[in-house]
Design brief:
globular; 2-enoyl-CoA Hydratase, Chain A, domain 1; 10 helices; Enoyl-CoA_Hydratase/Isomerase; 6-stranded mixed beta sheet; 272 residues; 9 strands
């Protein structure tokens, strides 16, 4: 049995070979804060070499998956400028998020994402790193960053890997919402369920099917699939994405978009 970290921003429930990981800030719609990221990374670090944990189920407490990033933190970080020769704290924070996504994506365990309520921005990206993603019919997905003057930086590589460039372009430039059933149609998710009971039944069936498979073969199959997916290393893609994110947050559009969201008003976009 693995020694799991103490956590508060996420909740861990180990049931035999299945680790249930709940995003546990429901009062704020489960934002992917830096503390959430740290706790997720610590959890996956604890099970990285432990083959007794064969499945990780990721879901959100309180009936919603995740509304994405913490915009108040982005607004504060935008004002921070690196000193000469020092690392950019905003870039480091975004790159940390990318490292979390990569760690989940490349974990040797099978990852099951269960989406209810909203999966926006980073939550959309998180749903895309599930080996199996199961959603409620009425779940709401969206790449909402461009509506805030930002860019879906660290999630873009995972979104494109998941649904392809054509679909990613549509959602990336429009911020359009899509339902859980539509998410299945475009390839974000694999199955949708009409009710809570149907959702839990589908999750249980997915776990049971995975547990019929050899854990070593599952881990090696994931490695082979990622090698086949594309020639550009994920580290390089995420480094570029972090640079783009920093530029967007500190741009006039980024400052206006975040301010408008926090002020609960429409943004006043100016021609680029």
């Amino acid at each position: 049995m693995p020694s799991l970290p103490d956590t508060s921003a996420i909740r861990l429930d180990l049931q035999g070979p299945v680790l249930h990981l709940w995003l546990n800030l429901p009062e704020a719609r489960n934002p992917l804060t830096i503390e959430v990221q740290r706790e997720i990374l610590a959890t996956f670090g604890a099970i990285a070499e432990d083959r007794t944990v064969r499945v990780v189920v990721i879901r959100g407490a309180g009936g919603t998956f995740s509304a994405g990033g913490n915009l108040k933190a982005f607004a504060s970080a935008a004002a921070l400028r690196p000193e000469d020769g020092a690392d950019d704290p905003l870039r480091a924070e975004n790159r940390h998020f990318g490292a979390m996504m990569q760690t989940i994506n490349e974990a040797p365990q099978a990852i099951v994402c269960v989406v209810e309520g909203h999966a926006l921005g980073g939550g959309f990206g998180l749903a895309c790193v599930g080996d199996v993603t199961i959603v409620r019919d009425d779940a709401q997905f969206g790449l909402s960053e461009v509506m805030l003057g930002l860019v879906p930086a660290s999630i873009s590589p995972f979104v494109v890997q998941r649904i392809g460039l054509t679909a990613a372009r549509r959602f990336g430039v429009s911020g359009a919402r899509l339902s859980g059933r539509e998410a299945v149609a475009v390839g974000i998710a694999h199955e949708s369920a009409a009710s809570a009971e149907d959702l839990e039944r589908a999750v249980a069936q997915a776990i049971a099917q995975i547990l019929r498979c050899a854990p070593g073969a599952v881990a090696e199959t994931k490695r082979l699939l990622f090698r086949a997916a594309g020639p550009t290393p994920m580290d390089e893609l995420l480094d570029r994405a972090a640079e783009s994110f920093c530029a967007a947050v500190r741009s006039d559009e980024g400052r206006e978009g975040i301010a408008a969201f926090l002020d609960r008003r429409p943004p006043n976009w100016k021609p680029a």
